[in-house]
Each structure stands twice: as structure tokens, then as C-alpha cells.
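Researcher: We plan to redesign the surface later, but first we want a full-length starting point. C-alpha cells attached.
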């Protein structure tokens, strides 16, 4: 599923009494007096996860003396209503949240601090995605990253370097009709900063310092970031004018690729279904190596299981998070959804299935950088997108555009997040 990476709700919470109800209910009389709510765990999931939860719920119910009620609702709807549904008791106990919202929901007090019951089975990138200021607010469930798609009818194998991609661009069969000297051999939507960040990071730029946690250190105007911008400009000089349309470039890329005019593009695993529907004979691979020898370090993303801070069943909800993210259930999750498990042992299981898309995402995620989950990230998206557009269009030189974007972000942060 593709998220709107420019619209975020951020927050975080500390848990001081996550197991208070359980600790207070030690005697049999107290258990008898407990409400029916204490015997029920409401789990909210998108339509695509309903069958999976129902397939694994029986063992958990038996082991914990609780009934799981599956609430079928769009993830964003559940999260957006949490602040109003929570106080009234209408919110679910457990739900799924994209990593970019985990930290913010925590600081807002909407979701509870949790423990990683399967911590040894997560890599550092996945753990960082659910951690803010040393506090963990979710159990990693899914990992995602951008990858390279290529048309197997046009290419016998995936390009390994960006120099190979540029060679495609110079091939006359990828010339763009109507714009002399322009071509569409390879396309990437770099005026969308979510797509462009891997290029920036591959050249040594970054959003925030200290692994994305220091908003006072903005790295979008350092020498590496500027070098990356100039490299992006060299591509825009070869691309049709439509690639500079910040609202329609994505559609332009999709149309060129699905009609067999473009050989390779950068997109996420969420694009696979539509490409298949369009009958593209596509392949998937890790994004090629940059001219400087660096990796394309795209943002690592995905989803986590989280617990409502309004839940009266935090203890059993914590047990459910441990249960649903263990190796066996994450392997079952992959079989049911084809989404990449965050649990590394289950990820090995998924790799063994020989799925090309799965292998590409897992390989790319190994080079991914956790998207900063501090609230200040909300101030980055628009200025960073404008930065790439200004350079791509020739409106500003890379150094000037980068300094202006960094200054804009810095000022917005100082105004909105001043202590």
C-alpha cells in the first residue's frame, strides 16, 4: 500500500501503567467482577489482513483466555479517529500504523509504549523505525523500500549501475516523440522527495543528524547533497518536460512504463499489482549503484503493530504483539499477503520462496535508511520537493536551492517546535 509521505500525524507516549489492570486483578473474585471488555481484544485491520488474523487467532485465544474481535477498517481511518474514539471506548485495542506515524502517535499520547518481545529477530533499521527518544511504540510488522522495476521484453537483465541506465537513455529506441533530444529509457520521480532521498543519501546528504533524530542538524545542503542534486539535474536535462510536473510526473512515468516505452523505473512494492494488471512483463531488482560507487539509500518504511493508549487490556495486547510478530506467524503473514515480514527469520523464509519482488525489496531494505520519525520531519517534505524542482527546472543552481531549502526547514522547525 502506498502512503502519502507528505501528510503526517506525529506523536509519542510513555507507559507508566501498562499492566496496571492485570496487576490489580490477581484474585479469582476480582476476575469474576471484571468487565466483559477484559475478556475481549479488539484488533483493527485493513480488509487484506482479516483472513490472516482469523487464521492465527484461535491459539492465542486459548492460551490467553480472551476472545479476539476483528474490526475491519482502513488503517488510516482507525488512526485518524483514535484521539476521539479512544476516550469513548470505541477505539480498538490493537491496530496497524505506518512507521512514519508511530513516533507522532506516541508523543501525542495516542499509542502506548511497548516491549519488543521478539527483539532478537529484528534488524536495527526496523527497530529504529518504531523507536523515538529511546522509547518503543510498536512492534515492526512489515518492511518496504523502493526498488527498480524493468521491462523484461526490453532488457534481458536488470541494470547494475546508473551508468548502464544512462546508456539506455542514449539509445535511440527510447527517444521521446515530440521533444527532440529527450528520452525515456529510465525514469524516476525525483521531484517527490520520498523517491529522491535515496539519491541524496547515496551522495552523502541526509535529512537530520544522529540517525534522523537531531533536527538542528539539517544535511540537505552539504557538499554531498549538492553533488547529488547536480547529478539529478543531468538526468532532467535528458527527460521530457512532463517529468518536471510535480503533480503529474508519477502518472507520466507509469504511462510510459506500462506502454512499453520505458525500460526501467524506480517505484515501491505497492506498484507491482498495477503493473501486472497492465500486463507488463516486469522484473524487480535492487536499485543500481550510483556513479560515485554509493548505494541508493532509499527510506525504509512499512508498518508496525501498535496498542491504543486508551486500551484497558494493555497486558494481553502486548502478548498479542509478541504473538503476531513471532517467526511462525510472520511467515504465515507473508504467505497470506506477500508483504515482507519485519522479523528477519521470517524474512529468510520469504526469501526462500524465490519471489523476485520479495528478494528485491529485502536486498534494497538492507541499504535503506530509517525515515526520521520525529515530528519535525513534517517540515521537510514540501521544501525538499521544491528543492529538486528548482534544480531540475534550471530555476536555481543546486547550491543556492539547497541552502534555501535548508533555511526554510530550519525556520519552520524553530517557529513550530520552539521549547
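Model: Full-length starting sequence:
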Amino acid at each position: 500500500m502506498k502512503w502519502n509521505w507528505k501528510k503526517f500525524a506525529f506523536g509519542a507516549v510513555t507507559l507508566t501503567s501498562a499492566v496496571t489492570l492485570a496487576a490489580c486483578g490477581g484474585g479469582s473474585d476480582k476476575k469474576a467482577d471484571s468487565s466483559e471488555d477484559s475478556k475481549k481484544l479488539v484488533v483493527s485491520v485493513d480488509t487484506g489482513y482479516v483472513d490472516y488474523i482469523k487464521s492465527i487467532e484461535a491459539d492465542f485465544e486459548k492460551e490467553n483466555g480472551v476472545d479476539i474481535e476483528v474490526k475491519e477498517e482502513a488503517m488510516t481511518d482507525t488512526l485518524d479517529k483514535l484521539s476521539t474514539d479512544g476516550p469513548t471506548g470505541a477505539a480498538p485495542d490493537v491496530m496497524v500504523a505506518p512507521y512514519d506515524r508511530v513516533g507522532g502517535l506516541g508523543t501525542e499520547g495516542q499509542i502506548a509504549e511497548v516491549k519488543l518481545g521478539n527483539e532478537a529477530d529484528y534488524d536495527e533499521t526496523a527497530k529504529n523505525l518504531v523507536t523515538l527518544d529511546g522509547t518503543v511504540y510498536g512492534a515492526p510488522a512489515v518492511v518496504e523500500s523502493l526498488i527498480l522495476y524493468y521491462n523484461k521484453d526490453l532488457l534481458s537483465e536488470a541494470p547494475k549501475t546508473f551508468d548502464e541506465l544512462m546508456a539506455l537513455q542514449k539509445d535511440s529506441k527510447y527517444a521521446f516523440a515530440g521533444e527532440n533530444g529527450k528520452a525515456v529509457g529510465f525514469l524516476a520521480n525525483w521531484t517527490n522527495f520520498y523517491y529522491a532521498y535515496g539519491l541524496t543519501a547515496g551522495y552523502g546528504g541526509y535529512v537530520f543528524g544522529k540517525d534522523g533524530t537531531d533536527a538542528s542538524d539539517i544535511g540537505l545542503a552539504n557538499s554531498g547533497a549538492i553533488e547529488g542534486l547536480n547529478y539529478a539535474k543531468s538526468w532532467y536535462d535528458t527527460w521530457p518536460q512532463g517529468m518536471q510536473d510535480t503533480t503529474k510526473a508519477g502518472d507520466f512515468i507509469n504511462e510510459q512504463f506500462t506502454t512499453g516505452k520505458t525500460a526501467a523505473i524506480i517505484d515501491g512494492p505497492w506498484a507491482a499489482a498495477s503493473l501486472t494488471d497492465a500486463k507488463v512483463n516486469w522484473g524487480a531488482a535492487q536499485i543500481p549503484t550510483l556513479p560515485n560507487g554509493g548505494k541508493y539509500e532509499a527510506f525504509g518504511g512499512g508498518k508496525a503493530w501498535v496498542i491504543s493508549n486508551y486500551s484497558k487490556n494493555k497486558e494481553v495486547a502486548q502478548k498479542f504483539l509478541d504473538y503476531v510478530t513471532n517467526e511462525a506467524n510472520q511467515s504465515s503473514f507473508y504467505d497470506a499477503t506477500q508483504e515482507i515480514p519485519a522479523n528477519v527469520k521470517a524474512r529468510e523464509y520469504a526469501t526462500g520462496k524465490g519471489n523476485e519482488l520479495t528478494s528485491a525489496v529485502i536486498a534494497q531494505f538492507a541499504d535503506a535508511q530509517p525515515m526520521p520519525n520525529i515530528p519535525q520531519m513534517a517540515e521537510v517534505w514540501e521544501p525538499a520537493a521544491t528543492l529538486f524542482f528548482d534544480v531540475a527546472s534550471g530555476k536555481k543552481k543546486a547550491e543556492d536551492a539547497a541552502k534555501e531549502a535548508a533555511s526554510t526547514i530550519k525556520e519552520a522547525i524553530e517557529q513550530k517546535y520552539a521549547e
